[in-house]
Amino acid sequence: MRPAVSPAGLDSPRGWLVVGAAFVSMSTVFGVAYSFGAFFRPMADEFGADRDAVSAVFSITAFLYFGLGIVSGAWVDRVGPRRVLLTGAVVMGAGLLLTSQIERLWQGYLTYGVGVGIGVACGYVPMVAVVGGWFERRRGAALGVAVAGIGVGTLGVAPLAAGLIDRHGWRTTYVVFGVASAALLGGCALVAAPPPVTSGAVLPRLGPAVRTRAFALLYASSLLMSLALFVPFVYLPEFAEVHGAGEVAAATLVGVIGGASIAGRLGIGTLADRFGHVRSYQGCFLVMACSYAVWLVVTEYPLLVLFAAVMGVGYGGFIALSPAVIAGIFGARGLGGTVGAAYTSAAIGALAGPPLAGVVIDATGTYRWAIGGALVLAMASWVVLLPLGRHDVVASARRAVC
Questions:
Q1: CATH superfamily label, 13-195+204-401
Q2: Which tens digits make up the pLDDT trace of 160-182?
């Protein structure tokens, strides 16, 4: 529950400096994680593995970084962001360096999955919570700028990875990424500072929040969307190559998702401060669902770019507004733990979605059934979210955590 008097420092220039650190942190960790599509085919070819086995590397990683968000989020509420970011720097850098040396694909489940999974868990949810704690009036805009780093990282790192792999191989590329990610996260740790509200304060218990109907709606909708969300990050480059695109052009489609998500994060996050976070959040789910309808019927590269752009705008708004919606309903105190608990839904979706899509693609010999399934799941996630805007749902959630 928000305090009656806003603490000094909220919405201050110091808070915007923390936003900058969050931007760099998220662009680093997600740039690495979402570039996995560029590594998909080289790793599959070298290890002679099926699609579901290779996609499991990404799925395990995403499961860990969303699942561990409840741990890293609660941790940052207590100790502040610096120790959390430094931990992420060490573990992510080491995990990528070890991945460059693996001799069996299952070893990558451990080195990449654990290393990048913990790295993203330390660089994402904690920084979202810290930024949310630094702002009140401009929370939507500040979170939009911070999570725009995810889009910038996705836009730039996926094509960079494809170019480095083409020239130096996937193993050397992971060495480069390991050193760079450790250095960048370490730099963010020097700048980040705990917000005026959360660290060191008496935090509310998580239980009352997660037992509300509002939290159940948020959780169910995120779970359904996450089952669909990560399918294009893994399979869109391969889909484009099958239909005639070059390797770099195919990998760039993931970058387009990231680039379009920047507009979604910045534009929708700012507009939502004026027109309402919940309704804007629901609109993002509808946009993402409609984008899968585009992917279902197109194969030409320009139209795949259109799909990636539409999906990216909705995805960017979804990521920007999720913590703002949670903070608006449940309050900013203990935001890391609440956001982390909500993001365990994405962990389950990320773990199951891409491997299930791979099984469907291998069984049917076509991508269409997997894309159609993603469309149904995305539309269902929007429908589940519709009751969230009702006054009784939000009001009962606020009473439960006060």
A1: MFS general substrate transporter like domains (1.20.1250.20)
A2: 998 899 899 999 999 999 999 99
Kindly report the CA angle at 229 between 223 and 234, in degrees rounded to 5?
Answer: 130
Write down the pLDDT at residue 9: 67
Question: Residues 295-313: pLDDT tens digits?
Answer: 999 999 999 999 999 999 9
pLDDT under 70: residue ranges of the chain: 1-9, 11, 197-207, 269, 332-335, 389-402
For every residue of 241-274, DSSP letters joined together read HHTT--HHHHHHHHHHHHHHHHHIIIIIHHHHHH
First to last CA, the chain: 6
* Residues 6+ away with beta carbon under 8 Å from 135: 10, 11, 15, 142, 143
| Number of other residues whose CB lies within 10 A of the CB of residue 300 | 12
Provide the whole-model pTM.
0.71
Comparing CA positions, the residue from 135, 128, 137 lying closest to residue 318 is 128
pLDDT at 6: 47
Looking at residue 7, its pLDDT comes to 53
Q: What is the pLDDT of residue 3?
A: 41
Side-chain-side CA neighbours of residue 52 (13 Å): 12
Q: What is the pLDDT of residue 17?
A: 92
Residue 94's closest CA among 33, 202, 199, 179?
179
Q: Which residue has the tokens 């085919």?
A: 41
Angle 76-78-84 from CA coordinates, rounded to 5°: 30
Unique residue bearing structure tokens 């929370």:
139
Residue 270's CB is within 10 A of a number of other CB atoms, namely: 17
Cα distance between residue 380 and residue 226, in whole Å: 11
Give the Cβ contact number of residue 15 at 10 Å.
21
Q: Could you state, in order of their start, the residue ranges of all structural domains in the chain?
A: 13-195+204-401
Cα within 13 Å of Cα(344), Cβ side: 13
